[in-house]
Every structure is written in C-alpha cells, then in structure tokens.
Design a protein that fits this description.
The protein is of the alpha+beta class and 265 residues long. The protein has eight helices and nine strands. The radius of gyration is 19 Å and the shape is globular.
C-alpha cells in the first residue's frame, strides 16, 4: 500500500521519487493543492482577484462514526449539494496503488484515480463518484431517506469492500454540513485554471485552499509554475498536511462525542 510522502513534489529524490513516478504513470489526474494560513486569506483574495460574488455555494456532508472508524481505514464518504446544478456523492479510498484495484473497477467511468500533491505530502486516491439530486441529500440528512440510497450499487459495493467489517452505510452518522464557497479563476500569469475554496466551519474558523488540476505528465512542470506564481504574489504557503477534510471530520466527530457524554441515557 502506498504511503504519504513528507517531501515536496518538486524536491523529491531516490525512493520517494520512484514511488511518485510510478503512481503518476498509473493515475488519471493530478491535483496540486495549497492551504493558506489565516493571516494570508485577505491578501490572497486581493492578490488573486478572487471575487466572492462569483462564488458557487456548496454544502458538504461527510458520513462516519463518532470515533472516525472510516477515516482510520482510509475511507471517506461524502455527499454535496451544489448551487445551480445537481449534487454528487463519492466513496473514496486512500492511499491506493492503482494497479492493485480490481480491473473492472479501474475501468469504470465513475472511477477516478488521482494524485493529490501538497507542500509536505502527496497521496494517491481512488474516488468512485455518483450523481444525486440536491433534495435527496436533504432527505437523507433529515432521516427521510436511507443513507445508502444516496449511493449507487457500485459505490455501495466499493464501500463494503473497504469499510471496517460489520459497518454499514446506514449506521454512519452525519458530520456536517460545511458551507463552501468555490471561485474559479484563470490568472494570465499562471496560464491554467486556479480554484479557490473557502470552507466555513461551525466553530468560526475558515480554511482557504487553492488548487489546480493537470495531467500526470504535466505534474512537475505545473507544480513549479504554481509555486512560482503564488510566491510571486507574495503569498505564504502553509506546509501542513492536515487537510480540510481531516479538519472538518475531527471537528464534527468531536461534537458528536461531546453530545454523547452530555446526553442522558
């Protein structure tokens, strides 16, 4: 099984470089991500000309247990409601080695194998995606629809193959929602699409992530160009691999555990 690296994408040597090259050769896409510290949010919005009035609103729900058994098993289950279009769902497994996935699953049109590269880490994931109506997500969250009904038969099978034994989709708890503002920008100086996402968490904190996607064959060049562009804008990039998903899961799971302690049995 692949592991997360603790080296920068553009500074890898030896064994880590060989591992990454192998993953890139078997992946469908690469997403380069950086998280900006709180002190950089205002300057990033100004420097990158991210217009909040152009942002698409998203509502993200994660599903796990209060002790995050899925996360510990490398599985993530998510549903999103998206402004102006239908929602979507995903069952994700990471880390993965692409050639170890079943052949029929690897060839599925719903499967995407992607390398996520961040300052300080990279990881390869397999995401099985599905479409869902926004109102169906709300129905499931309200308990009016079984959670499993949000996911396709293929997704349910993928979940069963990798989730902790005996844990069913309908037993998962709701972790969310997280309100997300997504802005797409194409800086002329960068020459590729740059996506800004602001995650607004219920404790009042915010996470600002910038990302760009590229083909695996473009990964190293894109990483150098993106890093040079952001540093050219005077932005400080956080080298913390504590991802936005992990941050959100731990926050909501902690609240569930607190409620269990304070609620009389």
């Amino acid at each position: 099984m692949a592991t997360e690296s603790n080296a920068r994408l553009v500074e890898l040597t030896g064994e880590r470089l060989s591992e990454l090259l192998g993953l890139l050769g078997e992946s469908d896409s690469v997403e380069l991500k950086v998280t900006l510290p709180d002190t950089e949010h205002r300057s990033a919005v100004d420097a990158l000309r991210l217009d909040p009035l152009e942002a698409q609103i998203r509502q993200v729900y994660f599903f796990d247990t209060p002790d995050l058994r899925l996360q510990q098993a490398g599985v993530a289950v998510r549903a999103r409601r998206i402004q102006g279009r239908g929602g979507d769902t995903v069952v994700k497994l990471r880390p993965v080695v692409p050639h170890e996935l079943p052949e029929d699953l690897r060839r599925s049109g719903s499967m995407n194998v992607e390398v996520d590269a961040m300052p300080g880490s990279y990881v390869c994931s397999a995401s099985l995606k599905g479409k869902v109506a926004n109102d169906q997500v709300i129905q499931a969250v309200r308990g009016e629809r079984p959670l499993r009904k949000l996911f396709s038969k293929e997704q349910r099978s993928f979940f069963a193959a990798h989730a902790p034994e005996g844990l069913a989709l309908d037993e998962l708890r709701i972790l969310g929602p997280v309100f997300v503002l997504k802005v797409v920008h194409r800086p002329e100086a960068l020459g590729r699409r740059l996506v800004g996402e602001v995650w607004l968490l219920p404790d009042g904190s915010r996470i600002l992530e910038l990302s760009t996607k590229c083909l695996p064959s473009e990964a190293f060049q894109a990483a150098v160009e993106a890093r040079a562009y952001l540093e050219g804008q005077g932005l400080e990039v956080a080298q913390d691999s504590h991802t936005k998903t992990k941050t959100a899961l731990e926050l909501f799971a902690g609240r569930l555990r607190d409620e269990a302690v304070t609620t009389p049995s």
